[in-house]
Amino acid sequence: MTRNNKVKVYDLIVLGSGPAGEKGAAQAAYFGKKVALVEKSEFLGGAAASTTIPSKTLRETSLTLSGVRARRLHGIDLSIKGKATVKDFLHHERMVKESERKRVLNNMLRHKIDIYHGLGSFYDKKIIKVESSNNQPYYLQGEIILIATGSSPRYPDNFPKDPRIYDSDSILQIKKIPKNIVVIGGGVIGCEYACVFSELGVKVSLIHNKEILLPFLDHDISIALKNSMSKMGINMLVSDGVESCNVKEKNIEIILTSGKNIHTDSIMLATGRNSNTDKLNLDMAGITTGKYKLLIVDKNYQVIHPETKKPVDGIFAAGDVIGRPGLASTSMEQARYAMIKALDLEPYKEHIAPILPLGIYTIPECSLAGKTENECRDEKIDYVIGKASYNQNARGMIIGDTDGFIKLIYEFNKDLKKPMKLLGVHIIGEIASELIHLGVNALMMNASSNLFIDSCFNYPTLGELYKYATYDAMGNRTKRIK
Amino acid sequence: MTRNNKVKVYDLIVLGSGPAGEKGAAQAAYFGKKVALVEKSEFLGGAAASTTIPSKTLRETSLTLSGVRARRLHGIDLSIKGKATVKDFLHHERMVKESERKRVLNNMLRHKIDIYHGLGSFYDKKIIKVESSNNQPYYLQGEIILIATGSSPRYPDNFPKDPRIYDSDSILQIKKIPKNIVVIGGGVIGCEYACVFSELGVKVSLIHNKEILLPFLDHDISIALKNSMSKMGINMLVSDGVESCNVKEKNIEIILTSGKNIHTDSIMLATGRNSNTDKLNLDMAGITTGKYKLLIVDKNYQVIHPETKKPVDGIFAAGDVIGRPGLASTSMEQARYAMIKALDLEPYKEHIAPILPLGIYTIPECSLAGKTENECRDEKIDYVIGKASYNQNARGMIIGDTDGFIKLIYEFNKDLKKPMKLLGVHIIGEIASELIHLGVNALMMNASSNLFIDSCFNYPTLGELYKYATYDAMGNRTKRIK
User: Fold this and answer.
1) End position of a domain, from candidates B228, B245, B271
2) Which residue of B has its CA nearest to A439?
3) Taking CB atoms and an 8 Å cutoff, what residues of chain A touch B447?
């Protein structure tokens, strides 16, 4: 520390400006705290702005350009599949990415948060050193430090480095749309990209080491997604793994555990992510990390020692850096809640959102809130299910989504005059990630089957499916009793 | 009545198979009642299947074919505007219409409802005579009779009959897409069709006799819709009326009250609808109708005499035939509720849906639930508003809807630590009619601002706008107090 670099003192220092960092910083500043935000990149927004948003934009553009929506609606094929260049896709993607980065910046400025660009690391337990190539280091002292540095793709050892092998960050820099691609890993990122590429007319193979895709989904939804992906033409290689990957001049050869042999132009690795904790100099704060370099936290998102389980004074963490579910939505909630606890802010948010939905941007979308059928079984809860299909719904027919459906899980109640308590909502189909919010709110308010029976839904809308799935559940209850 | 036509006895006879008729019949049959459904047309489904669904399908197809979605997303213009033929539009429309008719039929068959095709009219207070060209008349006796015969377009006297002058029924039989069209009437139907035609590249003029479009909408939404329609290129002739309409060989001339003079290829009349009560032989049941041939009902949807206000024994009415709002969604609710009351069914639905949303399928969509700002002012309720824009939302940016917004109205509460009660939700933008349901449920459950603050929304979704509009309202409250 030189004389020119006096330590600036803050109530809160946030490392990282992704969804967790942004919302944590804004939350504290909103309540009058002095906040510094440290971001290693030139832009704010983190992975959400740099990879999540662009990947969802690519998805939207692919749906439009490939003509899937148009094709369903009439005889003509509007598709420009094959003729589309990467440039076509990047036009809109760049705009959206820049808007999102600007939005985050404006949010920070509006909240009068000091922004430091550079690599932040622990100088001691309370002081963060910020280094950049342009400036002398800054030293910032924080009563509270929130680590929200996110995660980076994990590169498995059995894959060589080759420009035709992409991870979920580098895939967005792809120069031309490949003829074929092998996606390694059937998690959220793997499934999402497999669908987008397939939509673009790329011949896609998906290698997944389990039988079931996305096992946290309700079984019916997971099966429906798998069928839908097969129907799209994706070569689904489940319960299989990569034995070896050999880079050749003309193509890449993958030998599978099953003995199968694939030649491909390109590979996308979707094999999990590691926490960005390497460069934080955590030793200086007396912190060690767990598996995949994850920070371990308690229920208030305060960092704890993996061995002693004791909380580390004043240091909190939220978002990808603490692991699952690693979604922007939940990361924001974690950070907001952590800051309420850390800084003892007005108790306007006394608990973390009690229901955390999951939204998967595959084609079609999947989304869930509350319990799955398997969870009910494990918890020995007696339940009744009700389903309603998009193809039995006027708007479903209008938009041409014939495969989508909603599945509601209600707690069984043998008194036919009594409503049943809602336990879980599961949707696959267009705008599933939007429709789920009705279920989220219903679950938050401990709603019963009466809610959807008593609701008036606009016509034609997909929202109506909640009512018809509830009727179905009521019918199933009656059948079971009689 | 001949010997061959014995009177068949039912618990309920329903006249008309539109949304009100279908749901009323199914409701009664579900609870074990013997039900007859009388439909004058060859197909079931009424106006919802024959005009509402086709018009919404036309809207969806126009959005896709015109390339509005694609154009927003990238440089290329996918539009086939001008090249599209009516056949292109009708391909999907026919399929959707047939599916919806089949769905209604299956619903009736599943509920073991007897269907009679023919014109139903009162033979006496309890007997309905069904006449068709194929068969001898049927005579059906009903303990309860539900009139759900809908409405038909009203044809104003100052318009001659001409094949180039369409109403909201005949417009769907249009043979080719006109170069230009004048839409008469700025109600829901007029605004919806003006947008669809404009989207298809037709030069549209809209003549509306008031300054404000759709005055039941919140003022901000109404203004935004008008601006948006102007921006689309629709010639908005507000506060104006038609003085005369002169059919010429080459075109049609309209002279406006303001003195303006328009020449057009075609006209669409959207000048209100009359109840279909003419052919019901209402005299025989001792019923008379009100303005626009409307049936007058009490709070249980039982028909009452316009003068004596006394309920007519056993006769109920629901849907368009009783007038506003004349929406499929509300019609279904009315009929279900009427049947619960009429047949004293199990009290699983003790009240009509307490919040009735409105969905307007303009481009962009508009939707509302609960109170408008004007209503709050009239009722002397102190309120705070909060807004959030689609262009500040990640999914809004992804789908390229930069004009949409949500506006929440909360009851003012000066105690900053207390949440505020939600009073109204107003949305303009893509999928507004779906997004509104979150507000409908919140209003039904008397939710406060805490609900949306505590909710976790998928990212990226438009649903998040509820949270940010609530933050905005909270900020506005704070500003007002300080």
Assistant:
1) B271
2) B438
3) 441, 445
